[in-house]
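One-letter codes give the sequence; the integers encode the fold. A sample entry reads:
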Amino acid sequence: QLQLVESGGGSVQPGGSLRLSCAAPGFTLDGYYFGWFRQAPGKEREVVSCITNRDQRTYTADSVQGRFTISRDDAKNTVTLQMNSLKPEDTAVYYCAAVFVGYTDYVYPIPLKVHEYTFWGQGTQVTVSS
């Protein structure tokens, strides 16, 4: 069972940066697509950014385009979300998610929906406030 552990959340002033990490100790990540989602109080969980495996295609939501960057390092079993120019509206619990697609070069569409992901981390709080 893949276990995902997020880290790197915290409190920051508007315009600041944070780097979220998602670790999966002991697993080979090559066969998984990953996504970062967030959920603000009273709102539905929404996709932030996703990355495929071997071809490393990415998707980034319009609301964070140009500010957030997703990357992965399979050798270190880590997926990272670099968040720059943070805004108060970025305040939310951020979740790392993964779905197994196989150890293959087959290209699937990037999954963008919550229900398309099988494995979830426990979440890490990001608060942007002055």
Notes: The mean pLDDT is 95.
